[in-house]
Amino acid sequence: MDSTYMELVHTWADEGNQPVGRSGHRIHCTDSFLYSVGGYNPNHGPLREVWRLNLSTGQWEQLSCPATTPEASISHSLASHQGDLLMTGGTSYPFGSILTSEVLACDQQTGEWRPLHTSGPAPSPLYGQAVRRAGDYMYVVGGTSGFHFSLQAHALHLPSLTWTRLADNDAPNKNDEPLGRYRAEIGVAPGRVVVVGGASAFTVFPLDQLPVLNVNSGKWEVQWTKPDPVMQVCPSPRRCHAAVQRNNELYVLGGTDGEEVFNDVWRLNLLSLAWTRLSLTLPTPLYFHDAALTKNGCLYVYGGLDSVGSDQRSEAVFRAHLEAPPLLEAAWGAFTGQCPSLLSTDLTFTNNDLVAAGVPRSMVKRLARLPKKTKDH
What stretches in the chain show pLDDT beneath 50? Predict the structure, then answer.
């Protein structure tokens, strides 16, 4: 990826009903939508809500409201499975006042939440865990209660909803194993889980050495990483960064060491543990933001803070392609970009008109909007 350009996505909403800036949220992308779950804004408090952003039109729509969204919706774990958003862990405000390990599912079409009944040894109730979906499993590592910092590792087998404990490292530096942490990120490769950064109460962890879990043995080992071959350096220590995984590579974006906030983007090969500093940068330094990928490799970044201790939260959405998009995706992007009428709530054409004009039905479906909600008086 040679581009240094990350594009600002122009967003809008009916009647000004647009989400406020936030941190501590989590996002997920399909080819059609970006979903944002929860978060925190000091001027609004906990944001118990789910929003979806139409990636073709830039329209925000609220999918779930505070009355129905789970209370522990700050610094939770988020993954997806079969049309659901899956949330586990998390807290509310004051941070640590509520803790949970329940797995909850949100229907991506209706916004309806329901609990999932899991079996097996579940993670402890914590917040700030790292999560990664890989195949049929959702991996959850680390987290904090606000006082205690964990490096527990669990995997949820999604078809059977069965938890497996991969590693139970809950004692400080037990047997010289790596220390517990929160707001780290993880990558999952065959036979291993790699933990990148994070922090405990007094330590922000380095990225030149990373805890690596052998999934088969359940043993942690701290391994040295290889620096960028050109710059001969590794990323700075950081927490509250964002990361996305594509194949066996983890892309790490921004974060903070508690003093400086970063805008850099790095790629880690999860097999060789070799770092590459990318020319791509975030348009502004960010931490407590989140990132997600579409299936076709389009990277989205949303929310966060740009300076330590700020009471301002970003409402910006940025995107960049990690690789050249397929021809159909490129054509669709050009079409929607040149048709401002798609952004109107009073369309002069129907979806059938677009199909009749030769637009593939699979792409037209991306223009779907939520049904209008009637107000009770």
Answer: 1-2, 171-172, 374-377
d(CA 240, CA 238): 7
Q: Could you tell me the sign of the dihedral formed by the alpha carbons of 261, 252, 55, 358, in that order? A: positive
| Token digits of residue 46 | 């906990």
User: What integer pLDDT is reported at residue 359 of this predicted model?
Assistant: 83
Q: Cα separation of 160 and 202, whole Å?
A: 39
Q: What pLDDT is recorded for position 11? A: 93
